[in-house]
Amino acid sequence: MIADVRSVPASRRFPWFSKHSLSARLAAAGIGYQAMGDALGGRPRDDSLYRHGVADYEAMAMQPEFRGGIDRLIALVARAHVCLMCAEREPLDCHRCLLVARRLAERGLVVGHILHDGSIEPHAATEQRLLKLDDAAGGACDLFVTGHRERLAAAYRRRAHAIAFRRKGPASHRAVENG
Questions:
Q1: Angle at which helices 123-136 and 148-163 pack, to 10 degrees?
Q2: Is-contact 94 61, C-beta < 8 A?
Q3: Would you list the domain boundaries of the chain?
Q4: Is the dihedral of CA 52, 55, 60, 66 positive or negative?
Q5: DSSP-assigned beta bridge partners for residue 35
Q6: Cα 5 vs. chain centroid, distance in angstroms?
Q7: Which residues contact 7 (CB under 8 A, 6 or more apart)?
Q8: Nearest to residue 178, comparing CAs of 49, 42, 19, 38?
């Protein structure tokens, strides 16, 4: 089964990846399709889920709608092999990894990322790449981060801020503080 976590399950550039075309082609091949971008997408509709115009993954993960989406996804995993689908090639450039897979791994699920060469990278290895990337960007110099879990959480936060969806227009100029 494919769980499509794109907020907008459409593509002008590759129309065969749009929701209706893709779901029909998958069904013909005996593969299920579930659109889940409403709950698990990386582009929230709620203005309060943006910080300085950037989608705030930590705030999003606390929302009942997101938690319900994770619960529905886990229920799907209990019935079938599930592949999350989004639009980014590199896991560390996508909310699929930084938001959704992170929460699945925290709940004890085994998560792997399909890389561009077809190999599957365990989520723990992706997290190690995240830490190395964060170290190279100066994240290891953070004086307020002490343990491995805090270091990893800080690396997730910085990477998410770097790649998350950015609002265009007047809302992006407004600083929305969460907690």
A1: 80
A2: no
A3: 2-171
A4: positive
A5: 4
A6: 8
A7: 37, 38, 41, 42, 43, 165
A8: 49
Distance CA 154, CA 131 (A): 9
Structure token pair of residue 16: 């065969």
* Cα→Cα distances 149→75, 104, 153, 156, 179, Å: 27, 16, 6, 10, 21
Check: CB of residue 157 under 8 Å from CB of residue 135. no
pLDDT in tens, 136-176: 887 666 656 678 889 999 999 999 999 999 998 654 444 44
Residues counted in the chain: 179
State the Cα–Cα distance between residues 107 and 126, nearest whole angstrom.
Answer: 17
pLDDT digits (tens, 9 = 90+) for 22-54: 999 999 999 999 999 999 999 999 999 999 999
Angle at 47 between CA 45 and CA 51, to 5 degrees: 120
Between CA 91 and CA 122 the distance in angstroms is: 11
CA separation for the pair 111, 91 (Å, rounded): 12
